Give the backbone structure.
Amino acid sequence: MKNPARVRVFAPEAWTQTDFFKIFQGGTHKLKADGVKALSGVSNHFRKASLLYGLAIKILPNLQIDEQELMDKGHTSAINGAELTAVLEEVFTELYASVECIRKVITGIYAGTPKLPTDSTRRFFIRVMNDEIGSPFPQELISAVKGCRWFEQLRAIRDELTHADIGHCSTDRENKTVTYMHQGVKDGDSSLVIIDAMRHIDDLASDIDLFARDVFRYLNSQLQPTVVTQICGIFDGRVYVRNLPLDHSLTFHTGECISYAWFEDAEGRRCPFADNCGAYYAAKGIDR
C-alpha cells in the first residue's frame, strides 16, 4: 500500500515579491474582484509564457525538417517554422498579459490619482512616461515604468497578433539562430525583424520579471502589519495551518502553529515538521 501524499505548501524561501504581496495585501488594500484576478494573473501569465518558451526550445530542431525538404524538393510547406512561430507569438502575448495584470493591480490601488488611466495599459505607460500623472502616484513606480523601454515594441507585437496572421521564423545557418519577422508590425518604416528571437524573448522575460520585482517590492514596503492564516502543508489528507504575521524576513519558522491544538494528541496525525518548526514551539510558548 502506498504512503498517503505529503505536500509541504509553506515555502517562503521560494516566494517572489509578487507572492508576498498576494498573501499580505488584504490587510492594507481592498482590491476589487478584477484586481484580485489580475494579481493572480501576474504570475500565471508569466508561467504560461515560460512553459511556452520551453516548448519552443523543444520544437526548435524541427526547423531542420523544413530546410531538408527545401533542399530535396525545391520547396517546403514550412509547417515546422509556422508551428515555432505560433508558439513564440503566444509567448509574446502571455508576457504582455502579465504586464497588463501588473498595470491593473497598480491602477486598482491608485485609482483616485488624477489622470491615471484605469482601463488602458497603453495610455497608462504613455502618461507615466510623459510625467502626466498627478500625485500621490509614487516616484518609485514612476521610475519602474520609465525603465520599461521594451514596452512599446511588445505592445505593438501583441496588438498586431490579436487580429493578424502569424509572422515568420527562419534560421541563420551560420549563427544557428532564429530570426522572427512580422510584416504587420512596424519598426520605423520597415517591418519588424528580430534577430536571434530566442535570445530576445529570454531578455524580454528577464526585463518583465525585473519590472514585477520593482513594482511589488515597493508595494510590499507600503503594507500595514497584518496576520493571515497560511497553509503549511497537506499531510495524510489533512490540512495543517499557521497564523503568519507580515514579516519581510520570513522563514519557515515564522508564525504560530494553529493545527497543533488537534494533532498534538491525535495518534498518527502529528505534523512531520513539528519537531523542527519554530511556529510549533511558538504556539506552545517554548523558546527554541
